[in-house]
Amino acid sequence: MEIRPCRETNIVQAYFHTPLPNGLLTMDKQIKLGLFGFGCVGQGLYDVLNHSQVLEASVEKICVKDRSKKRKIDSSYFTFDKADILSRDNLDVVVELIDDADEAFKIVSEAMRNGVNVVTANKKMLAENFETLYALQKEHNVALLYEGSAGGSIPIIRNLEEYYDNELLDHVEGILNGSSNYITTLMEFDKMSYADALQAAQDKGFAESDPWLDVGGFDSKFKICLLTIHAFGVILKPDQILNLGINNVTFDDIQFAKQRNKRIKLVAKASKIGDTVQVYVLPRFVDQGTALYNINYEYNAVEVEGAYSDRQTLAGKGAGSYPTGSAVLSDISALTYDYKYAYKKLDKSRSNGRPKLKLDKDFELKLYIRFNNREDLKKLDITSIEEEYRSANLNYVVANVKFNSLFNVYNDRANELFVCVMPD
Length: 424
Ligand code: HSE
Known about the structure:
Blueprint: E1 2-6, E2 11-15, E3 31-36, H1 40-51, E4 57-63, E5 78-79, H2 83-86, E6 93-96, H3 101-113, E7 117-120, H4 123-128, H5 130-140, E8 144-145, H6 156-163, E9 169-175, H7 178-189, H8 194-203, H9 212-215, H10 218-232, E10 242-243, H11 251-259, E11 262-273, E12 276-287, E13 299-306, E14 310-317, H12 321-335, H13 344-348, E15 350-351, E16 354-355, E17 358-359, E18 364-370, E19 382-390, E20 395-402, E21 418-421
Parallel strand pairs: 3-4, 3-6, 4-5, 6-7, 7-8, 10-12, 12-17
Antiparallel strand pairs: 1-2, 2-4, 9-11, 9-13, 11-12, 13-14, 15-16, 18-20, 18-21, 19-20
Helix pairs in contact: 1-12, 6-10, 7-8
The protein binds L-homoserine (HSE).
L-homoserine binds at residues 152, 177-179, 206-208, 214, 219, 318-319.
């Protein structure tokens, strides 16, 4: 095989001189891309595309918002008018990598209506509009691929879709937000303050433009929504799902964990129990020796537990320009062999269009709850307190709490409680 990188034209071509065995991709298709967004992930994609040794793809146009920004490639690639891409009739794929979820939805749905395949990494847009996007895929017989939207570089969606397609999965859970994990890691390892650690996550390009989405657990929630679709065939609206984040974490909490050989990780969990699913995002004390304990910095990990395969963990970089760019590249590459998600579980798990599995919010969790004002505990339905500690600087309880009552502090930026799940 001879590889001819053409960096200056942002086209990479690879030619196979020897015939490939039957069934292998011959890469004779030149893919034409229209790209929306040239931020952290867009530039990452551009670079990984230019270093790809097998994918023959050309970026025809890149639509961006900011006219004043200096960019590292020739200005002739750029347009500020989305119609320059959406009205083009020679494109194979629209790649959507912008920040604004509402605008992204308009772009993605218009491209699909025009019969163009779409690759996106926009978890918020996908999770908030999934039913519509699912219908558009069927109606217009187009592919919508989004491996980069959950777990960064970890190939979890296609694995759930293909490898675990017949497996009876019990749960999927993991660390799905690189920024939150980066923050708690820097606080523990480098004694860095929360504010400095958040700034570091932003400087590295890991955080969302609004970092409340990261530290408040919303980003993890959008991602677990997508994994729940591919693991269990259940579409949930993000606002049905509880998310509390690490935005209130302090050194006292990290010390509490350390003394007990644990670490604080923001964990998104989806479990199937009978004909129900339990789905939530909460900080958790993870035990030394368990798979998630050593997932640090911007790394993510997803644990999948099946009836026959038992527990398996996939880990990798969960945020950043190149890791996410590589997942997007893999989707573009999958389109060269006409790959589409089959959504077998989704079709199987519905009867007359209605989901067979119900979302269960009626259960209890054992939680560590640190508080400044004990009155705040009244917001939660506590069934029993197993431990209580009061001092001048630190107050907490370890208590059993009705899960439903945690919605009383959900989405409340002023909430002063720090809630963390105690392992069984
Ligand atoms: N803000 C996200 C994170 C980016 O920190 O994980 C990757 O989805």
